[in-house]
Amino acid sequence: MLVTGDEVFYPNHGAGCVKDVETLQITGSPQEYYKIFIASNSLSLYVPTNEARRMGLRKLSSPQQLEEARQHFFAGSAKLPMNSTERKTMLKDKLHSGTAADLYEILRDMVCSKGHDTKLTADDKHVMEHTLHLLSSELMMVRNISLAEAEQLLKKDMEVRSASMG
After folding, report:
1. What percent of the chain has pLDDT over 90?
2. What gap in Å lies between CA 135 and CA 130, rounded to an integer?
3. For a Cys-Cys bond, which of 9, 16, 33, 81 suits 86, CB 3.0-4.6 Å?
4. Which sign, positive or negative, has the C-alpha torsion 69, 71, 73, 78?
5. Domains in the chain, please, with CATH?
6. Predicted local confidence at residue 72, as pLDDT
7. Are the C-beta atoms of residues 37 and 17 closer than 8 Å to each other?
8. pTM, whole model, 2 decimals?
9. Residues 6 or more apart from 94 whose CB is under 8 A from it?
């Protein structure tokens, strides 16, 4: 169980901090919720404690775990499905997993999509921007840097990866 002060990652919104564990009666009987503050969005949200794991809530990655996940970005890329519906489903599943490795893989495979003759749709580009934001928020908290600095680090990695393709 998470406690007040734990730094966490929530796949829908990014990295944050557990501010409290509260008992609330939203529907039906009272239930315990984590109150989480997501700094990158200035957002407070409640996640039911008994559903937190299923919803992808996890402790923030360590610096070592984040660096290991980053290595996925520079590893061989996977070809995204050509069918946009299949691609959307695969990307949604990886986003929902919320692991840093999956998020880096989404960025990697999208950056490398031209090399696989895959044309990204507007939805794909939105997913890429959302993934960039999610990873930036985790990088921000793990490295104790600003969100803008975290985004710049990731964009630099994306430029290096893109340049290495051709």
Report:
1. 75
2. 9
3. 81
4. negative
5. 7-59 (2.40.10.170), 63-163 (1.20.58.1290)
6. 83
7. yes
8. 0.90
9. 102, 103, 105, 106
Closest listed residue to residue 120, CA positions, set 130, 105, 109: 109
Cβ contacts of residue 129 below 8 Å, gap of 6+? none
**pLDDT tens digits, 30-87:** 999 999 999 888 999 999 999 999 999 999 999 999 999 999 888 888 889 989 899 9
Q: CA angle, 106 as apex, 104 and 109 as ends, to 5°? A: 105
Residue with tokens 């944050």: 16
Residue 158, both tokens: 């994306």
Beta strands in 11-166 (DSSP E): 14-24, 31-38, 43-48, 58-59
